[in-house]
Each structure stands twice: as C-alpha cells, then as structure tokens.
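From the thread on structure requests for the teaching lab: each student submitted one protein with a one-line request. Submission from student K.M.:

"Model TetR/AcrR family transcriptional regulator from Streptomyces yanii, tokens only."
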Amino acid sequence: MNTSAGDGSPERAEYRRSAGSPRGEARRRELLERVTDDLMVNGLVDFSLRRAARAAGTTHKVLLYYFDGADDLLRQAVPGLRERHIGNAFATAAQGLGGGTLADRVRAMWQHLGEEDAGLRRVLDQLIGLAMYDPVRYAEPGREVSQQYLPALLSICPEDWSDRRRHEVAEMILATLRGFLVERVTSGDTAGVDAGFEALIRALEREEAAGR
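Reply posted by the TA:
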C-alpha cells in the first residue's frame, strides 16, 4: 500500500478531506497561531517551511497537509498577525472622534500606528522591504496587509463624498502614511516625518473644505 504523502497520493487526498472538517480546521488554526507567534519574535527574514514546523511543534510534512507550502502559510499568517494584535482598534481610533474632521481622524489613526506593538511594526517593515527585494514571494502578502487599512480609511471620509472621491483620498492617505512609516524606520528622521505629516493634514483640511 502506498503511504507516501506526496502530492496526489491517496494518503494526502484523504488527509486533505479530513483537514476540511471542524477538527481539521481547528488544527489548522492552531498551527497558524504558533507560526504567527514565531513571526512576531523572529520576523520574516529566513522564513521557511522547516522553521515554521519547528515553531509549530510538528513536521514540515504535516504543515503541507494544511497549507500549500511556505508561501501559502506566509500569506495566511501575515494578515492574521495584524488582525490579532490590532483587531478593530485602528478603526475604533478613527471612529472615536465621531463628529471630528477628516484631518482629526487621520491624526488619531497616525497616533495609533505609532503605538503599535514593536514586534508587529518590525514584521510589517520587513514585509515592505522584502516585497521590493522579492516581489514574487512577498508582494501579495504586503499588498493584503496594506489593503486592511482601506475599510477604516474609507469609513472616515465624509459620507456625502462620491465613492470615487472617497477611494481617491483613502488611497492617498494610505500611500502617504505607509511612506512615512518606511521613512521613519530607514532614516530615523522623526522631525522630517512629523513635518510631512502636518503637510498631509493641511492637504486634507483643504480637500474637505473644497467639498463644502
């Protein structure tokens, strides 16, 4: 009887079916949580399936039953990492100002970004750098993490704006804040970043005033 776990084998197919059961899904989530813990401590550099297996307390073959390789595991772990440590706090910071201006809400969001867990910031910073160095492997998870900001950014734009305008402004805020985060890490020029952020705030104030 062939008991190999290679792609397409009877054993692998059977395990794949069991992995979709409630028990199998619980096991998949448990493994993903352990790998996410490892990313928080050791970052993305030199991430591999064998390293993930050690962190999860299992073998790389077991991980292959639940995930389609290291890249699939990484794509699932990185967004989950941000959700687990930030949750809805980012959106809450924006919505907490209620009747505040768009600029007020962006200022609150920027403050929240500065208070993020240091381990999380390191992983996200590494992800941006690795996406430029190796876009084939890292561009998609990097894009997914960035896109997690968009719903919160869209929600703080004035409700009477058109969908197109809200998306344009939200994308501008996202790209600008992301650039500031990279600049803050790579150059250490916090004064320059602060000055740039104030320029963004003035631009948002003008944008909102133009729509009145």
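TA comment: Residues 87-210 form one domain. Residues 1-15 have pLDDT under 50 and may be disordered.
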